[in-house]
Structure formats: C-alpha cells, structure tokens
Predict the 3D structure of the following.
Amino acid sequence: MSPEVVVLGATLVALTLYALLGGADFGAGIWEFNTALHVSPRERALLRRAIGPVWEANHVWLIFVLVALFTAFPLAFAAVCRALWLPLLLGLLGIVFRGAAFAFRSVPSPDEPRPFHWETLFALASTAAPFFLGASAWAIASGRLDVDRSGGHGGDPLLGWLNPMSIFGAFFAVATCAYLAAVYLARDARREEGVELAELWRRRALVAGAWMGLLSAAGLALVATAAPVLWEGFRGRAAPVVLVSGLGGLSSLGFLLARRETAAVVGAATAVGGVVLGWGVAQYPAIVPPSLTVEGTKAPEAVLRPLAIGMAAGAALLVPSLGFLFYLFKGKRPAA
Amino acid sequence: MNAAALLPPGDAALFAARLQMAFTLGFHVVLACLGVGLPVLLLVAEGRFLRTRDEGWRTLARRWSKAFGVLFAVGAVSGTVLSFEIGILWPRFVAVFGPVIGFPFTLEAFAFFLEAIFLGLYLYGWDRLTPQAHWWCGVPVAAAGLASAWFVVTANAWMNAPAGFRLDGDALADADPVAAMRNPAAGAQTTHMILAAYVVTGFLVASVYAAARLRGEERPYHRRARALGLAMGCLSAPAQILAGDFAARVVARTQPVKFAAMEGQFQTEARAPLRLGGIPDEERGETRFALEIPGALSWLAHRDADVPVRGLDSVPAAERPPIAIVHLAFQSMIASGVVLLALSAWAGWTWLRRRRIPESRAFARALLVAGPLSILATEAGWIVTEVGRQPWIVQGVMRTADAAAGSPRAGWILAATLAVYAVIGVGSFLALRRLARRPLPA
C-alpha cells in the first residue's frame, strides 16, 4: 500500500475516533445545554467521573488529524484553512472555552459550590464546538467550496462555506454528539449509579436515537440532491459502510429498549463511526472535493514514508496506553 | 524606536497576525514550561512519599497534581489554538513547508497523546492504582512533556536554520524530514528551551511558597514545596547559562544578522565589543549609552577576539529585524539569567555550609521576584528568536509577509483572541488560587 493511503487511512480513523470519543464529551455538555442547566448534583458527579479521566486524551485526536493533514496533504490543509477559517475559529472558540470551563468548574469555591458562569460557558461551548466543526466537515463534503488546485480559495472569504449541507451538518453534528453521550452515560450510570439515573439517560438516549434516525434519513436525502458526486460514492463504494452504520443505529435502539446498554454503546459507535468512515470512503480520492485529491495535494514520497513509519511506531505506544486508560476507568468494575 | 520597521504602511493585517502569533505563543509557553517541569516535581514528591511513607510528601504531590490538571487543561487548549493558527494565519507557509516541518509536529502529537493518557491515569488513579503503579504513571507524563518540547522546538529551530530540502521555484524538492530535524540550530535551541522549562517551573513554585513564607504561613508543607522548587531552579539555572552561551554561538554562526541585532552590532568589525545595556539608534547606525567590553563579543561568538563579527551593515535595511526590540529583549533575558544565577549561588552557598536552604525573609523576597523574572527571561528569549528572525518566517527562504493569509480581519481576530485569553487567564488564576486556599490536612 502506498504511504499516502496509509497516512490518509490513519487520519480518517483518528477523525472517526475524535467523533466517537471527543464527540461524546461534547455531547455531555450539550445535554446540560438541552436541559437548560437543570442538572442534579448526582448527574454532574456521574459526568465528571465519566469524562474526567479521558477527555484530555479524547481531545488529542483532533490535534492528530490537524498535524497529519498539515504534513501529508499541505495543499488541502491550506485550502481548508483559507475557505473555512471562520467556522474553524468559531469551533476553536468552543473547544477553548469548553476545555477551560471544564477545568475551572472542577475546582469549586466553598462559597459558590456551583460556579454558574463556568457551567453556562461549558454547556454553550460544548454545543458550539461540534456545531461549527460539523458545519466545516459538511462544507467540505458538499463539494461546493470554491478552492483551486493550488490550495487557493476564490469564494466569499467570510461566508463562502455557508450552504444547505453545511447548515444541516452543524445540527447533525450536535445531535450526533448528544446521542453518543446519552448512550455512553446510560451505560456508565447503569454500572455505577443505580436505576434512577440509568433510566433517565436511557430515555434520553432513546429519544436522541429516534431523532438521529430521522436526521440520518434527511441527511442522505440532502446528499442525494445537493452533492451528487458524494451520493454516487455512498451508493457505490461506501454502500456497505452505510448499511452497517444504519444497522448499528437500529441495533442501539433495540438494545436500549432491552436495557442492554453496553451493547447499545457498540451499536451507537458503529452507527456514528460508519458515518465518518463512510464519508471518507465515499469521497476518496478527493480530500476537498471536487478539485483537491490525494494525488494533487500529497507531500513528497520522502516525507510520507517516514511519516507512515512514525505513525505505526507511535500507534504501537499509543494503543496499549489508551487501552489501559479505558480499561481502568471504563472497563474494570469500580470497587464497590 | 523605529516604528516603520514594526509596521510597514499597508501591512496592518500582517502586523496583527504577527502580534496574534506572538501573544498566543507567549501565553502558551508559560504553560508549556510547567507541563515539562511540574511532572518532574510531582515524581520527586511522590517518590519521597514512597521511600519515607511520610504522608506530607503525598499531600504535596496530590495537591500539586490538582493544580497541574488545571494548568494542563488550559495548556492543551492554548496549544490547540496554535495548531489552528499556523494554518489560518500562515497558509502559504504550511502549503509549501508543511511536509518538512510537519514531521516533528506529528511526533509531538503522539507525545502529547501519551502525556494526556498518562495524566488521566495519574490524576484520577490515586485510589485505583497501587502507589508504585501510580508513580510509574507519572513517568511517561514527564518523559512525554520533555519529548514534546524537543519536537516542537526542533520545528522552530528549523525555521531559524532551515535544512533538509531544496526549493524548485516555488515547489519543495528533495524533502528530507529527518535531515530537517537535525538542523544546525536544533541541539542548542532545544537544550536552551528545556532547561528554561525547569528554571521557570522551579522558580515559579519557589516563588509561590516564598509568598506563603512572607505571609507567615510556614508549615513543613510550605518549606518542602519551596525547597523542591528551589532545588529544580538552582540546579538548572547554571546549566542554562552554559546552554545560553552555546545557543548564542550557534546563532552567531547560522543567523549572523539576528546575532548582530541581539548585540546592537551595526558595523562588521574585528575585536567587536560586548555591549551591556545601550539603545540601538538605527538612524545613526550605532548603539548608544552601552557599556562596552572591547573584543569580548568576538571572543564570545567565536572564542577568538580577533575574528570579525558581522554587523547589521552586511545586509540591506529591508533584511534587518527591528533592532531595538531584539537588543532590549536579549539584554533583559541575560540580566534575568544573571540574577537567577546569583540567587542559585546564594542558595547553594547556604546549602554547602548549613545543609539547608536560606530561610531569611530577604531570601524569600528575592525568591518572590525570581518566579516572574524567570518567565520574563523566557518571553524575552522567544522575542529574540522570533523578532530577530524577521523579516523571514523561514530564515533566508520565505518572508513572513509572503506566508501570511493577509486577511483584512486579522485585527478583529486579534481583538477577540485577547478577550478570550483574558477570560482564560483570569479563570486559571482564580482556579489555582482556590486550590491553594483549600485547607491542608492537619
């Protein structure tokens, strides 16, 4: 396999994991936003235990995606930065405030045990980040960004990214994160907290899952009408991925009904992972369709080869470490 | 000061982008220093606990780990800002040089990953892991922090002494990322920065507990904390002076114009004098009011007083950096370094004679200043590195102006950034203060 395909594949996997892990962390904040901050202390404690140990690591996937694109496909990265600077900066604003607010609110002061402003900021920022990152991703997928082969951007510098798909994508991303978070938290609550909280999150997961089903159908219809090239990819090469994703989503609803939350987590992750992977597979070999492809933007061979080797070596260190982290905080039964 | 050198007419957008980069980097570097240094202090404190079973050491490590958690979270987001900015502010730099410079950044991403993973284990694993296993989870945090610093500064060193590629018109040819990482500035610059991280962490921690001493809070907890910080600062400060001398000689060799600006050396001359203080006057082409030590600059740069030192006159005015800023920043860094060295000598002398650290109020007052001073030195050093390279983003290869996005909205983005960082800065300070005020176990 050529090194650019290895690097692109690794980047796509990293993006998928960012959606599955980072997305769920955003989702936890989105639920605080959804419930207008009417969150009980027990819910909050569950949330802190659930995302506290892992969120820093979950966040790094994004950095990885950025530097991998930057190194391996510099023209595509420059084009994305030029065309999407505004939604990317707004998403970044969400990331910054979310990360900072999560850290600050975990240090409450004695006279203000619930630091209201940091909690509000956390909820708002957790919603803003996936909103704008989702808009950016769908703007790329739409194939309507006016970028040329040398990485320049000819569209409106401020609003060139706005189109029906990017607007839909913003809401789709927020819903996806909320759905993932609800399913994951239902599982965590079942294992750690007892029935009441588990049932609350299970109900939320079911509602969010039903919404996701509708939104996914609408999204496919939108792609079919607004992005014919991507649609061809979905119907052709990526069809099996789309099918598996759909089955995963349906199964997650079934497992939630049966109160088998751990299986529901697998189903939900399959559904969401399938969307991201399916997108990548469907638009390959384009990176920023239609004009920027792997072949047209890739770094020299002399860079890609050590990069692929470096990534393999890094993964050899990363995978067991990450496995241990998740085993300790998510797999191992907590001491009673 | 020559304002025209700072702000060429019509280039307000470029200036705003540069200020944006300078400000966000300057903010991040303090957190990055603590990210490299604090895990080492945590390991020492927890290691003392494992050896002595004295709960006091464990209390220290636990409380510091909470503060480190906050600092790491803020450092992670301010670092994320940088990874976005590099593309959004300097798209042409990325488009051309991304492949050469991106390799160390990718390796850094892995190091950061390991740091984040083991920090999660360390912060939340106090009661889930055996004490030994917990201590070992801190080791990759310290190692990965070190590795991160090394990778990132290697990339910056490449901008100062580019290597490992050829330009074929506008396109990159013969890119060799490993040769790029082994650029001539990498060794000196990474050593200088990593030591700076230990100097900053050490003196900043010592500074915090010197303030406690001056307020009259002086329990064994505070003394130990101060001693640990002081030990780290005092051990790394002398090494830093040597590393700084090494770094300056590398700059003299690889970036003679930057070196001339640092030293306020306008004319190329043999037996060039070392200038202490002074104000470079670009119109008259000389550095005024400086105390000059004849021949010393030639000797410092080349270890031979008779070797000529290249002056700013060796390049056209358009290829010179803003001289006054670079000279002033360099002098501030040196002065701060000398003060920290003197403090280290004071502490070392007391240690040799009495086997304890100085306890006097005078020393505590000096320490109180040492923390901020170490940050000043680091910031000044980065100003020298970055402003001294201007007008180049890649020394001699690509001009900063040619790399910029040139967005007319750069000024607005800068204003928003300052507001956002003000919130984060205040939030971090308040969170750390709340942590510090939590009562100690009796």
Remarks:
- Chain A touches chain B through 64 residues (CB under 8 Å).
- Chain A has 13 helices and two strands.
- The mean pLDDT of chain A is 90.
